[in-house]
Amino acid sequence: MQPPIAALSLLSLAASSQAAETILGVYMFHRHGDRTPKSLAPTNLTTLGYEQVYTSGQYYRSRYLTGSSKIRGINEDLVKLSQLSVTAPVDNVLQSSAMGFLQGFYPPVQSVQILASGDKVSAPMDGYQLIPVNTLATGAGSEDAGWLQDATTCFNAKTSSNNYFTSSEYTTLLNSTKSFYSSLIPVVNGTFNEKDVTYKNAYIVYDLINVAEIHNSSINSSQILTNSTLFQIRTLADGHEWGLAYNETDQMRSISGMQLAGEILTYMNRTITSGKAGLSSNKFGIQFGAYATFFSFFGLTSLQKANPDFMGVPDYASSMALELFTNADLSGGYPSNDDLQVRFLFHNGTATNTSEPVVYPLFGGNADAVSWSDFSNGLGKFAVSTTEDWCHKCGNSTGTCAAYATGGSNNPSTTSNNSGNGQHMSAAIGGVIGAFVTLAVVLGTLLAIMLLGGFRLVSKKNLAGRGTPETAAVKA
């Protein structure tokens, strides 16, 4: 016997209610837009790059602020800063990209304020919304750096990346591609010395040619830069940078991905905590950074197993998003952690309504989403969330890391100097002692000049009436 139509309707309604999905928060990592080449630093965001990140901002506005995937509780038009977190390293290209994205994400909203006097004040630039871009402690100057690890101060990460240059994979490619890179010399000899046009500099050679292909209509190389040659230049650069950013048996070189994982977990935990407290904050976090962080994060979360294309350098304005969502009924309040899920989306290049991000499985699995518990445990295996953890992993013990120094053997500043008779002095301690020695010499010289020249010290206040307020010593 078939159930009544009314019963079927109720069952369908219940099923659709259970299947209803709610986005609770998002954390995104975004690459900058088109820029000038690294080899001609300082790099700058181009007009094309500005348009790319602005368009991306418009798309994600349509997805997370106004569309069917709108983040629950987020302001649609007028930004509420407590709901938003925007970060980027101290870098012209990355910070400019962040601001360009925000112009598309939260466009101008004209507002008029009435003062106590009755005067009306209209917001400048049609209501341009002022959204701060917070700076990150690491990654400064990323886009001016020719070598992938130049923007990090992590000693062990640099050492790990350098290991790639002694690997059999690198050596084989360096030798087998000599003639190929020699054929490119006529194209790049205005920027590079011939000896530098090798696989060792695969990325910056590719980068220069790639920028020229986009912007230089008169590049005199049509016979050399065939489609197959351009493909090989790109493929070699991909392999070179992947080798520097990730290695399954030597993951220390992926420190930027570890830091990103820590920042994702920290932000999403705040999203959950604030939601359970009934607060409307920590809804959307976005960080702008370099392709190295993409690579590191891809490798650490095994995304290359889902699609080998993740081993290629992401295009300008690429973006990845981690969506925290639930299918639970929210009428009873914020869902429990057991009802929370996370999915990963990626788009290579500028995302638009006609070319949207695609969902990929994390951690080598095949599911489109993982439970919050599995996600936090998966990232927690390698995430770096505190300065202390970063210092220990990197083997750094000076500057900020001095408070956590343990004298470990990985720290270059505490390594024994076998050519001397004792311990090698750390750079920090040597600098302090050197400063005091210099100060003593300067003071001693000044004292001798004053004694021999018949000078005496006089208060600036006492000199005010003599018309020489900036004189600190006068002849007796």
What brief labels describe this structure?
globular; 2 domains; single chain; eight-stranded mixed β-sheet; Rossmann fold; 16 helices; 476 residues; alpha/beta; 12 strands
Mean pLDDT: 83
- Helix content percent band: 25-40%
Quick one: overall form?
globular
Distance between the termini: 119 Å
User: In terms of per-residue confidence, which ranges show pLDDT below 50 for 5 or more consecutive residues?
Assistant: 11-18, 408-476
Any idea what the CATH architecture of the largest domain is?
3-Layer(aba) Sandwich
Beta-strand level of the residues, as a percent range? 5-15%
Q: Which homologous superfamily in CATH is the superfamily of the largest domain?
A: Phosphoglycerate mutase-like
CATH class of the largest domain: Alpha Beta
The CATH topology of the largest domain turns out to be Rossmann fold
What class do helices, strands and sheet pairing give? alpha/beta
How many separate domains? Answer: 2
Q: Compute the number of strand runs.
A: 12
Keywords: Membrane, Signal, Transmembrane, Transmembrane helix
GO molecular function, one term: phosphatase activity
Family: Belongs to the histidine acid phosphatase family.
Pfam families: His_Phos_2 (PF00328)
Summarize the structure.
The chain is built from 16 helices and 12 strands. By secondary structure, the chain is of the alpha/beta class.
Description:
With 476 residues, the protein is an alpha/beta fold. The protein folds into two domains: 20-107 and 125-385, Phosphoglycerate mutase-like (Rossmann fold, 3-Layer(aba) Sandwich); 429-475, no CATH class. The protein has 16 helices and twelve strands. Helix 2 crosses helix 3 and helix 8 (202-215) packs across helix 9.
